[in-house]
Design a protein that fits this description.
The complex is a heterodimer of chains A (458) and B (90).
Chain A: E1 41-46, E2 51-54, E3 57-59, H1 61-64, E4 65-68, E5 73-76, E6 82-85, E7 92-93, E8 97-100, E9 104-106, E10 119-122, E11 124-126, E12 140-144, E13 148-149, E14 152-155, E15 166-175, E16 181-188, E17 194-198, E18 203-208, E19 212-218, E20 226-234, E21 238-245, E22 259-260, E23 265-275, E24 290-292, E25 296-299, E26 319-327, E27 336-342, E28 349-354, E29 360-366, E30 369-375, E31 383-392, E32 396-401, E33 407-410, E34 421-424, E35 435-444, H2 448-457
Antiparallel strand pairs in A: 1-2, 1-35, 2-3, 4-25, 5-6, 7-8, 8-35, 9-24, 10-14, 11-12, 12-23, 13-22, 14-21, 15-20, 15-23, 16-17, 16-21, 17-18, 19-20, 25-34, 26-31, 26-35, 27-28, 27-34, 28-29, 29-30, 31-32, 32-33
Chain B: E1 4-11, H1 14-24, E2 33-35, E3 41-43, E4 48-53, E5 59-66, H2 71-76, E6 79-83
The chains are: A mainly beta (458), B alpha+beta (90).
């Protein structure tokens, strides 16, 4: 058995003081190898691989993290098929990560069966569909008739238009049919905000309307399915509609694209509408609205280690957070928490978050006063993001991001006492990530070089 | 098997509804409703459906509890339903 070389542990300036995958020599050879987590980690949650470490021992995710959510939750797995997670079960899938989001109510119903008379059809027929789940074998085809005019379906009198003004987000689950273009409509009056999608290339060819705020086109999922999320700021009554578009050029609204139909189709497997900026995975509805409750994911305190009192636990008076996230959406102007260690209030906390301008930030708050904020200079981009934050009074608050190794630092006096509540994907006051968390690790304080080394390797 | 007990709470105003859920939170480690950072009315979104104005013009909310029950909620509930928790609440 090879003997670990002490020479290999001698720190090179700016480099790691240990071999990645092994512990530093001061832990002793019995501590090697440390596995997939950082050698200084006291808790590591790897949602991408559905594994967890606490106190140097691998344990089940559910043994280390408690999830509160009073409803089931769908999440597409790596094959693009929805898995259903029971109430109080973390929605996490191998190769994907965990979706941690706030409460969403789908106001549109039924969400999959557009043949239902509560959806008002114009110039088309709809084959019945009963399951609003990705990967289902029979999806609803919207088939245009031979009339000259518009061809679409809209919320009718039963799935009522949402009467309140404000931000709303629509969900359209689509697949390609025989007609190339589909027009997704949402907002007040159905005439002022729409997006046209080319279902051959799955590109957005047209975005129009003063009420438009943002959109994201997700997928492909099983069977080539895609999801369009579209947020509008409607001034009055709100509704959603889906229209087949014969020309690919827009005329706004359900009364749109007038053309002579020839029996072509588009496929819709789910539709939804909710107040707010995010929708996330599909929320099936049948005879009424349905709510997916927020997911609150917290570390379980275990005999004082590691989160039963920040000042007296193994972390000492400083700590670091390492995180990998996968963002499908930005530009919403809201704070989104990645991780937070607090005393159960917003007045005393260490937090790693995305600020309203989409820039990653780390912050120390004590006694209701912000002691220090380290914020990166440029915004995160959609896709995978890797962040490391050091909350260390001796060396300052330090935040580093993988892309371009951007970093930011600020000084502060001391970590607030009594921090014992670790939340992943959310923080005090809600402020959910509403996206995918791949992993979070909580460590004894890292050096800046160690933080940079981790984000480069992660 | 998981059981979800859902308590539908109704009141004349959103504020009254929030106050009722705050009262039901007394003595509990995890409150259903509480004052937010800026003193705003806040709810535990993992268990409490955010209030909405129902067809009769009354403010409604639902508290959904997994494998547990709450007598104080039962005392004020307009309706109680129990299901297996396999579907999102309708």
């Amino acid at each position: 058995m090879p003997v670990p070389s002490r020479w290999s542990d001698i720190r090179i300036q700016g480099g790691l003081s240990y071999i990645p995958g092994e512990g530093p020599f001061w832990q002793g050879t019995e501590a090697r190898p440390t596995g997939w987590w950082h050698p200084k980690a006291v808790l590591a949650a790897d949602f991408l691989n559905l594994r967890c470490m606490r106190g140097s021992t691998e344990i089940a995710l559910a043994s280390a993290l408690a999830t509160t959510r009073s409803s089931a939750h769908l999440l597409a797995n790596a094959a693009g098929v929805y898995q259903s997670f029971a109430a109080n079960a973390l929605a996490a899938s191998a190769g994907v990560g965990a979706y941690i989001g706030g409460q969403i109510t789908n106001m549109a119903y039924p969400s999959a069966d557009l043949s239902d008379p509560r959806w008002v059809k114009t110039g088309l027929s709809v084959s019945a569909k009963s399951v609003a789940v990705l990967g289902a074998s029979a999806n609803a085809a919207l088939t245009e008739d031979g009339s000259t005019g518009s061809h679409g379906a809209t919320m009718g009198s039963a799935p009522r238009p949402i009467s309140t003004a404000g931000l709303h987000t629509a969900f359209f689950g689509l697949e390609a049919g025989t007609r190339r273009f589909v027009q997704c409509v949402a907002g007040g009056g159905l005439t002022s905000c729409f997006i046209t999608i080319d279902t051959q290339t799955w590109t957005v060819t047209e975005t129009a309307g003063a009420q438009y705020v943002a959109h994201r086109l997700l997928g492909p999922y099983a069977g080539g399915a895609r999801i369009l999320e579209m947020t509008v700021n409607n001034a009055g009554a709100y509704a959603v509609a889906l229209a087949i578009n014969g020309s690919g050029t827009g005329t706004p609204g359900i009364a749109a694209p007038s053309y002579a139909g020839n029996g072509s189709t588009i496929i819709c497997w789910g539709i939804g509408a909710t107040p707010g900026r995010f929708f996330g995975p599909c929320i099936p509805t049948t005879a009424g609205t349905a709510t997916r409750y927020a997911s609150d994911v917290k570390a379980i305190a275990s005999g004082g280690e590691p989160f039963a009192g920040f000042a007296v636990n193994a972390l000492g008076a400083a700590m670091s957070m390492l995180a990998a996230i996968n963002l499908s959406r930005l530009g919403d102007g809201v704070v989104r928490h990645v991780a937070e260690l607090s005393d159960g209030t917003s007045g005393n906390r260490l937090r790693l978050f995305i600020d309203t301008d989409d820039k990653a930030a780390a912050q120390v708050v004590s006694g209701g006063t912000v002691l220090a904020t380290a914020k990166l200079g440029s915004a995160l981009v959609a896709g995978r993001g890797v962040l490391a934050a050091n909350f260390d009074p001796a060396n300052g608050l330090y935040l580093v991001r993988k892309s371009g190794l951007q970093d930011a630092a600020a000084n502060f006096g001391a970590v607030p006492a009594g921090l014992n509540l670790l939340k992943l994907g959310s923080g005090q006051g809600g402020l959910y990530l509403n996206d995918i968390v791949e992993q979070v690790q909580v460590c004894r304080a890292l050096t800046q070089a160690e933080a940079r080394g981790w984000v480069q390797a992660a | 098997m998981t059981t979800i007990t859902t308590y539908r709470i109704e009141d004349d105003s959103e504020e009254a509804l929030w106050a009722a859920l705050c009262a039901a939170s007394n003595g509990k480690a995890e409150p259903y409703a509480f004052a937010g950072e800026a003193g705003e009315r806040a709810f535990d979104e993992a268990r409490v459906r955010l209030p909405w104005l129902d067809d009769a013009g009354r403010w409604a909310s639902e508290v959904a509890l997994v494998d547990s029950a709450d007598a104080s909620l039962a005392a004020m509930a307009a309706k109680i339903t129990i299901d297996d928790g396999q579907a999102a609440r309708g």
